[in-house]
Amino acid sequence: MPAPKPGKVLVTDFDGTMTREDFYRLVVGEMLPPGTPDHWGEYRRGEITHFECLRRYFACIRATEAEVLAAVDRMGLDPGLPAAVAELNAAGWVVVVASAGCEWYIRKLLGAAGVDVEVHSNPGRFVEGQGLLLEMPTASPFLSQMLGVDKAMVVRWHLDAGRTVAFAGDGYPDADAARLVPADLRFARADLARVLDREGLPYRPFAAWSEVARDLLAKGAT
Ligand SMILES: [Mg+2]
């Protein structure tokens, strides 16, 4: 761990937040052979963890690597993201990706867009015939047995270091992280927005990730 420094950090989810689509949803919708068990049901019944649910589905992928990479492209990274990251960096914001998905496709998409940011996610590699092999991030300081990488731990670590922390997300697993940051630095869409609405917790809505950047830059938060 680097020594804590003051500053401004935007911790952001990846799937459905920096992109239009979730990788997981594309896998379940397009890449599973017939007869794949209902691992989501197993997760919802508390029989397996969120990490294990994703690990099992990703290991069922029987598409070729080229087909999977084409699906990764269809996740639709916000085209305004590279410029938005550059503007945030110039204004003193550090962007940190925290994802319970897989580093493999996150690095592919960000790399193709020429974006170099800190990424905390679950490692993995694609092996044709075996699928995307998801691994526990055993070396990560943000390890959770349930999720792999725990986004709330990432947020808390920066808050404890005395930094201004914003968070952006779109899903149920983002709720713990979103609750930790101030309302004017809490960005939500889709399922996360519905959770926060139910709890009466205010947030800034967004449709595309670059709107989060625009909002932070406009308010000049320090
Ligand atoms: Mg998400």
Helix count from the secondary structure assignment: 10
Distance between the termini: 23 Å
Parts with pLDDT < 50 across at least 5 consecutive residues:
none
> Bound compounds, please?
magnesium ion
C-alpha-based Rg, rounded:
17 Å
Q: Could you state the CATH homologous superfamily of the largest domain?
A: HAD superfamily/HAD-like
Helix content: 40-55%
The total count of strands amounts to 10
Structural class label = alpha/beta
User: Which fold name is given in CATH as the topology of the largest domain?
Assistant: Rossmann fold
CATH architecture of the largest domain: 3-Layer(aba) Sandwich
How many domains would you count in the coordinates? 2
User: What percentage of amino acids are in beta strands?
Assistant: 15-25%
- Give me the side-by-side strand order of the main sheet: 3-2-1-8-9-10
Give a quick account of the main beta sheet: strands, pairing sense, barrel closure.
6 strands, parallel
CATH class of the largest domain: Alpha Beta
The string of secondary-structure elements, in order, is EHHHHHEHEEEEEHEHEHEH
Shape: globular
Can you walk through the features of this model?
The protein is α/β, with parallel strands linked by helices and 222 residues long. It folds into two domains: 8-21 and 78-124 and 132-219, Rossmann fold; 25-73, no CATH class. It contains ten helices and ten strands. The strands form three sheets. The protein has a six-stranded parallel beta sheet with strand order 3-2-1-8-9-10, with helices on both faces. β9 (186-188), α9 (190-199) and β10 form a beta-alpha-beta unit. α5 (81-90) packs parallel to α10 (209-219). The chain starts with 7 loop residues before the first strand and ends with a helix. The chain binds magnesium ion (MG). Magnesium ion (MG) binds at residues 13, 15-17, 169-171. Residues 13, 15-17, 169-171 line the site of magnesium ion.
